[in-house]
Design a protein that fits this description.
By secondary structure, the chain is an alpha+beta fold. Helices cover 39% and strands 14% of the residues. The strands form two sheets. Strands 1-2-3-5-4 form a five-stranded antiparallel sheet, sandwiched between helices. It has a three-stranded antiparallel sheet with strand order 6-7-8. A hairpin with a 4-residue loop joins strand 2 and strand 3. The protein starts with 9 loop residues before the first strand and ends in an 11-residue tail after the last helix. 38% of the residues are buried. Bound molecules: the ligand COc1cccc(Nc2ncc(-c3ccc(C(=O)NCC(=O)Nc4ccccc4)cc3)c(OCC3CCNCC3)n2)c1. Ligand 6PV binds next to strand 1, strand 3, helix 2 and strand 6.
């Protein structure tokens, strides 16, 4: 299917994912030749979920963190929303674990610190993810993690610790209070899901799993799971602290950032130094000037004034990423 709105801007390639009312296609940003992911949402099938897309776009525009996929551009037409997002060429963490059977404590710690950093950042902004699972954790080309929310996470109006009621997310990773339909705190259910994620990293299988839903629920509510022999005492302690049935007994995100298992081998606790917004980069601006013929100062003025989700913004950010990766900014003449 061709979309007129993308003509001359992006070349669509294969579909890399589809869920609910969204489809994600791999695409090439024509001006720079860089790969991007384009999440295509059909307004008709969105129905009354339409306002949540605006919420998601607003959320993503404010989420500037090295372990959260970056939003480059938003295009709205009568029939569709197109969200142009950072492409993670390493695919899903899930496939990475399956391929390696299970990860070593050291590799698990490297990945888990990145997830904790992204979630701590989210919580600090009053967001709860509520659907943390390996399918929503992607790898970029340097095997750094990128947390995404392929579904739609909601920002509760009165802050993260207002009681949420809508159930979301897959039961396998869902906290007991969530599957019991109790009032729950987003921050607490995210800790539980991260416990399931950490278990999956270290063990290569899930702590609670069953083909029948009611057996799965029973296992989750029992809070009992196997502790394979290869788990270190420290790993077992941390997992136990996260998979506490009683949410009030569960470790908090702050305690998690400083936990001995998390800091072992690293000099500092997990912090979330997030990306600041635009820094002016003269190399990137002069490359853009060479592409479009405008003066670098005019390009920068327009960038700063824009709503930061247009093609010019996408071009600037993609060139900036390329420079940060140590690649030349040279643009192929065909672009
Ligand atoms: C190499 O083979 C492969 C194989 C597989 C994937 C890739 N790469 C690859 N890169 C990028 C994406 C992507 C990123 C973000 C969003 C999104 O919807 N953002 C919105 C968002 O993240 N909000 C948000 C974030 C944090 C907090 C709150 C809100 C959508 C898609 C992707 O998708 C494919 C799906 C497939 C089904 N499982 C999930 C990923 N895939 C590559």
């Amino acid at each position: 299917v061709r979309y007129a709105a993308l003509k001359g801007l992006y070349d669509l390639e294969k579909t890399i994912g589809s869920g609910g009312f969204a489809k994600v296609k791999l695409a090439t940003h024509i001006a720079t030749g860089e790969k991007v992911a384009i999440k295509i949402m059909d307004k008709i099938s969105l129905g009354d979920d339409l306002p949540r897309v605006k919420l998601e776009v607003q959320a993503l525009k404010t989420l500037l963190h090295q372990h959260i996929c970056r939003l480059y551009q938003v295009i709205e037409t009568d029939g569709h929303y197109f969200m142009v997002i950072e492409y993670c060429s390493g695919g899903e963490l899930f496939d990475h674990i399956v391929e390696k059977n299970r990860l070593s404590e050291t590799e698990s710690r490297k990945f888990f610190r990145q997830i904790v950093s992204a979630v701590a950042y989210l919580h600090s902004l009053g967001y709860a993810h509520r659907d943390l699972k390996p399918e929503n954790v992607l790898l970029d080309r340097e095997e750094n993690l990128k947390l995404i929310d392929f579904g739609l996470c909601a920002k509760p109006k009165n802050g993260i610790d207002s009681h949420l009621q809508t159930s979301c997310g897959s039961p396998t990773y869902a906290a007991p209070e969530l599957i019991l339909g109790k009032k729950y705190l987003g921050s607490e259910v995210d800790i539980w899901s991260m416990g399931v994620l950490l278990y999956a990293l270290l063990c290569g299988f899930l702590p609670f799993d069953d083909n029948s839903i009611e057996n799965l629920y029973r296992k989750i509510l029992s809070g009992k799971y196997a502790e394979p022999s290869w788990l270190s005492t420290s790993s077992k302690r941390l997992i136990r602290a996260m998979l506490q049935i009683d949410p009030k007994k569960r470790i908090t995100i702050q305690e998690l950032c400083n936990h001995p298992w998390i800091t072992a081998g690293f000099l500092n606790p997990v912090s979330f130094v997030h990306k600041t917004n635009f820094e002016k980069d003269d190399d990137v601006l002069s490359t853009m000037s060479a592409i479009c013929g405008e003066h670098a100062s005019d390009i920068w003025r327009k960038l700063v004034k824009s709503d930061r989700t247009d093609y010019r913004t996408a071009t600037y950010l993609l060139l900036l990423d390329r420079k940060l990766r140590g690649l030349s900014l040279r643009i192929s003449s065909s672009a």
